[in-house]
Amino acid sequence: MRVISYLIAIAVAGIGFIFLVGYQGQIARLIIGVVLLLAAAAIAYLGHLASIPKKTTTTQKIDLSGDVSLEEFRCRSCNAPLSKDQIDVKAGAIFVECDHCGATYQVEEEPKW
Ligand SMILES: [Zn+2]
């Protein structure tokens, strides 16, 4: 994105420069040239602002409001109640590791529609 805005800025500045070079006593060309150079500076500045890395925070939010609620979590194979530390969230999927029977599996939440 930054490279594109710089390229646009250079192109606009180039056109503005042409207007200034071809000024030939025409005040309108001078004004257009100056305006284009200012526009180029503004584009370059905006491109610079856009290039400042934004802090990206990825929060894992798992909606358990479907058929799965944490309190009601029971092992699929031995039906023992599962505590929070036996449930692991990896890459947006819920993994269960049962302490009672040692079963490990992925919980697929029922679609809500
Ligand atoms: Zn179990």
Describe it.
With 113 residues, the protein is an alpha+beta fold. The chain has 2 domains: 2-51; 57-113, no CATH class. It has helices at residues 2-21, 27-51, and strands at residues 87-90, 93-97, 104-107. It has a 3-stranded antiparallel beta sheet with strand order 1-2-3, with no helix packed on it. A hairpin with a 6-residue loop joins strand 2 and strand 3 (104-107). Helix 1 (2-21) runs antiparallel to helix 2 (27-51). The longest helix is centred in the middle third of the chain and has 25 residues, at 27-51. The radius of gyration is 30 Å and the shape is rod-shaped. The relative contact order is 0.12. Zinc ion (ZN) binds next to loops.
**Total strand segments:** 3
Number of domains: 2
| Strand line-up across the major sheet | 1-2-3
First-last Cα distance: 39 Å
General form: rod-shaped
Largest sheet features: 3 strands, antiparallel
Low-confidence blocks of residues:
none
The Rg value, from CA coordinates, equals 30 Å
Layout of helices and strands:
Elements: H1 2-21, H2 27-51, E1 87-90, E2 93-97, E3 104-107
Helix pairs in contact: 1-2
The site of zinc ion (ZN) has 8 residues, from loops.
Which key features would you list for this structure?
rod-shaped; 2 domains; 113 residues; 12% strand; alpha+beta; three-stranded antiparallel β-sheet; binds zinc ion
Provide a short characterization of the protein structure.
The chain has 113 residues and is α+β, with helices and mostly antiparallel strands. Helix content is 40%, strand content 12%. It has 2 domains: 2-51; 57-113, no CATH class.
